[in-house]
Amino acid sequence: MSPLPEKDRAIAQLLLGAGTCPRCVLRFCSVGSQLLYRQPRQDLMKDLQEFLKSSQAEEEDPACLDGADPPCKRIRLEQREGGAADGLNHNGATPQLPSAGEGNAATDSSPGKVCNVCLGVLQEFCEPDFVKKVCQKVNSADYQFTSFVFSVSLPPQLSVRERAAWLGMKQQMRNLGLPLAKDDIVQLKEAYKWIIHPQLSEELGVPADGKSLFEVSVVFAHPETEEECHFLATACPDCFKPAKNKQSVFTRMAVIKALEKIKEEDFLKHFPCPPSSPKNLCDALEIQCNNGAVFVAGRYNKYSRNLPQTPWIIDGERKLESSVEELISEHLMAEFKADSFNFSSSGREDVDVRTLGNGRPFAMELVNPRRIHFTAQEMRRLQQAINDSSDKIQVRDLQLVTRSAIGRMKEGEEEKTKTYSALIWTDKAIQREDIAFLDDIKELKLEQKTPLRVLHRRPLAVRCRLIHTMASEYIDEHHFRLRLKSQAGTYIKEFVHGDFGRTKPNIGSLLNRTADILELDVESVDVDWPPTLAE
Fold first, then answer.
1. By C-alpha distance, which of 214, 186, 211 is closest to 200?
2. Is 350 one of the annotated active-site residues of the chain?
3. Disulfide-capable partner of 58 in 64, 77, 193, 309 (CB 3.0 to 4.6 Å)?
4. Order of strands, edge to edge, in the sheet holding 214-221?
């Protein structure tokens, strides 16, 4: 069975003669059958050569022309009107397609020769040996996965070569007086995946899935031809702008943008069409695996007044040996075998503030984890391991969550409420009746300038906050405890001592004396997330 329709015979003959591999020939002929690309390339080459020979034999056999319509005179006239440059060679004769029997196609696209378009990507890198190499890399990385998505990064000069092959073919077809349809070329990446997906799937034992979170990627490079894009920077300088995170301005997207912009005649001046075959194959620079992030959520209690929520580092110097974040992440990183993590929580407490009650909601993103499947029982054991490792913190309701679910922790941040317990000192002696009126104050409006203690990391602003309720507990002439429910984001310490008048009103101004805070505890963070788990 012929791999191509008769209308594509000339295209196939020209491409094979220029050193293009059989799979790229299929791409240029807009062949969409995945099964054809998966054929062994030697078999595909043999089929193409047989197709070309049989077509030629039909042309040479006069019996094949019996009953055929005579050539259209109008077409012949139009060809002659174009002059020798368009329709005739330098001897005044009509150019002929190279004969399949002359051996040029077999020689220029021989199995050992590197394709002048794909630089070997659709040749050696579709073979079982390379597939096994990729799978060995995947298996040695020890990932848990139930499907995979395959991605490939190609050298940008492949786009230049593809354009050059097309323009070269277009020129030759025009010279031969043959039409060239404007069908889209099958993308190299797409054809490569058609070939490689079933092989990887069979070797790894899991299906390929475009929505899979486990990615297997291959990065190709071709040092021999890497400068072939450079002429585009002169022709289209606006397309190539330095970027901080890019090593080279010649990115694939920049090259494609320039190819869309450059005029055909300018391209032909700077690049050979069709392109010549290189000496060397592409290099598979990197074979990488990456698992999508896993998200773990829970609540933590902090019982120490000498423990920051996150590492406390000032001017490169560490102030305290540990943090809430590190005490939790140490165990999660080890169990999930992740590369890194990102910690977030519903607010934060100062280093000297405890978090009691049901704790503070937190979430941790574990980046590129090797292990992703945990049962509820395994999560409980992990929670217990964290709790047994330190008396400074405890976690509860530890569970796997989705990325979207984490948004609930941050929803309506300023509308949430938090409950505190503050131990307060006053310079002047107080009696019970001096503080009793605080219990009757509801929805007290505050104006808080950014506190002096955080002004180095937060912008200067005046924030309006609410103290919803207060309840006082007399201790002695200079001490009392105040329990208060406030709007999230209220600076409680500043509400007590006034921060040199930057928070108004404050406990000092309400009592008409100097007040300061000795201890502060967070007793509840009123966020209904993550879901409470049964013990």
1. 214
2. yes
3. 64
4. 149-153, 214-221, 283-291
CA distances from 403 to 297, 383, 409 (A): 10, 20, 11
pLDDT in tens, 67-126: 444 444 333 333 333 333 344 333 333 345 555 444 444 445 565 799 999 999 999 999
pTM: 0.82
Partners of 493 in beta bridges: none
Cα radius of gyration (the chain): 36
Q: How far apart are CA 302 and CA 308, in angstroms?
A: 9
Q: Any idea how long the chain is?
A: 535
Say if residues 458 and 450 touch (Cβ distance below 8 Å).
Answer: yes
Q: Which two tokens stand for residue 460?
A: 């200067």
Domain spanning 418-525: which CATH class is it, in words?
A: alpha beta
Read off the tokens for 132. 């096994």
Spatial distance between the Cα atoms of 534 and 377, rounded to a whole number of angstroms: 12
For residue 208, give the DSSP letter. Answer: B
Domain 293-414 and domain 418-525 have a common topology: yes
For domain 293-414, the question of CATH label 3.30.70.2510 is answered with yes
Q: Give, in order, the Cα–Cα distances in Å from 103 to each of 55, 112, 296, 496.
A: 15, 15, 64, 94
Indicate which residue of 86, 350, 352, 439 is catalytic.
Answer: 350
Q: Which residues contact 510 (CB under 8 A, 6 or more apart)?
A: 438
- Inter-helix orientation angle 9-18/157-175, to 10°: 120
Q: Enumerate the domain spans of the chain.
A: 6-54+114-228+271-290, 293-414, 418-525
Pinpoint the alpha helices (H) of 374-506: 376-389, 403-410, 432-435, 492-497
